[in-house]
Amino acid sequence: MELKEDPPPARWSEPRAAHDRFRPGLSPYLHYYYDLRAERGDAPPREPHGPDDGADLPGQLERALRDLVRRTFE
Amino acid sequence: MMALAFAILSSFQDFLDDPAGILSDDSRNPDPREGEDDRDLDDPSLAYLSDGALPDPRTGCIIGVIDDAIPFVHQRFTLPGNLSRTASVWLQDARFRPQPGDDLPTGAEWRGAELSDLLARAASGAIAGEETIYRMTGAVDLTRPATPSGAFESGHGAAVAPLAAGFDPADPQARNHPLIAVCLPPRITADSMGVLAPVPILAGILFIINRARRLCRFIERRRNLAPGSVRLPVVINISLGLTAGPRDGSTPLERFMDAVSDFSAPDLGPIHFVLPVGNHRQDRLRARLKPGQHIAWRLPADDGTINAIEIWGPPHAHFPRGDLRITLTVPGLAPATTAFTLPWQYSILSGPDGRPLARAYYTPHQTRDGQWRDGITVIAVPTCPERLGEAFAPPGEWRVRIADASPEGVYDLAAQRDEVIRGFRRGARQSWFHDPAYRSHEPSGFPILTDAQNGGDPSVIRTDTVNAYATGERPLRGGAIYRREGTTAGYAALLDDGQPGDCLVPVDRAINSPGMILRGRDSGSFELSSGTSMSAPQLARWLAGQLSDGQRPGSRAAIRQLAENQSARPAPTPMLDFPTPFPEF
């Protein structure tokens, strides 16, 4: 009987924060495109963040949204 | 009132920082004005409309349109005497123009009085016509690097805007509907995923609200009315969408639209949003899984753009801690499972040679009721590198599995749209989910249109394929029917309750004759277009007419009730029919 070889491994890198503070429009896609532009030399490379630098982002997003709604009608 | 620049600059710094490179370098305002003044009420060169184009302060209703390449001097946006009904247009990516948009972060703004002047000069032969106006205003500039979609005869915005706000100049309703338009950067439209659009759209909404309020003050000044007495309602049409997202109304754009619609401003009437329900019911971009289940994700070869899916978990009460884990299996490689612990972490998946194949981002968010939902976005690098030496991923059948240890519940999966938009040259190819239990057609050849008709229990679904911008509580979602048959268009997405929208309007001429005849960019020209992008503006126009008539529906249900009352076919989803804008020929 012919044995099938195990497929070669794939691995995820250690998680690290994509962002360390909230910015409007913040998204995985923007993060990817920025890195792509940086790789191509069209944008400066970003400073790497630690794994927990983005932990407060959901809270920051909430506050920013409330602030934006308030200021829209000031 | 806070200056618009300050609101946008402080809230949309990312728009200016432009991490995705969507703006042209010469579009940026180097020194935005931060203070607010009343020059726009007194200076004739800054006037929003000519006196002869001012709407009735009691029955007017402003129509806002956010789109690509809006033909703002089209004959359908004028009144007799070459008067512009376009009160203001913001060309977000045009070469920066210091006046009148010195409070804007980018681009050029043109207002109604000066557009009326240009139209008069064109009518007299002093300038060569509409085309010259578009070139003079910066809407068309073939010397700049971005795709010149403003020059397209059959552009998206050229079809949408006249449908929402275009009137015969002699139509007595015309004057009551001034247009405030936002032309998005062409690179936004080129990205068919639409994932770069939310910030420019948010900025566009802020612009429309700000200019609508100023237009009300302008009308008061010109008509000698008391300050704050003119409160015109506003209907904003956004014929744009996403195919992936949490679909629970919790994205910032959706929550902002809801908040704006809920707010009662002392100096402006109610604000309504109308969006398309979406066009991707049949494209296998939506699936549901439980922990331990997996699904195939098929990536086409020769795709020069990224492919992306989003996975959203069931709601839970505690702060996100990385409970959601997914296992991704790339063709020919062993499975690998994510291991996030905190929000907004990301990991890069590499093959045995260390080259990146995909990324995963952990993006949990808070729902409207204060609970949390775990989310992971997977971005696979292009299967054909855009440039030599860049990373590429193997095409074929990838597998996505919700790890066994993930919390119990249903997980929503959606793939982002990834197609080439007409006129924009990019090598995009659509990925999709594959489940053998999903049947696209009956043996007789007819398409299967609902999950119930499909039968069985496939992971790939048609329900809840609604535009992911349109799951908030307030916006009206327009669905499409075939005019001749009166049946729902097969491509039109379904809401989570299975309905094909909140209201339906005819778009395609017939099942075997897709598309409707619409106006092209130049006055007198026409084009054929299809999709629920054409439903939304018809409903926006109808809603603006209702508001002009004094109706004040306070919720989506109330708007729907209004439609039911006027519909010859009110159930199960009200269908509104309008005379065809062009005679059938």
UniProtKB/TrEMBL annotation, chain A:
Region (Disordered): 40-60
Biased composition (Basic and acidic residues): 40-52
Protein name: Uncharacterized protein
TrEMBL record, chain B:
Domain FAD-binding FR-type span(s) in chain numbering: 211-414
Alphabetical list of InterPro entries matching this protein: FAD-bd_FR_type, Peptidase_S8/S53_dom_sf
Positions with biased composition (Acidic residues): 34-43
SUPFAM superfamilies in alphabetical order: Subtilisin-like
Domain of life: Bacteria
Disordered: annotated span: 20-44, 564-585
UniProt name for this protein: FAD-binding FR-type domain-containing protein
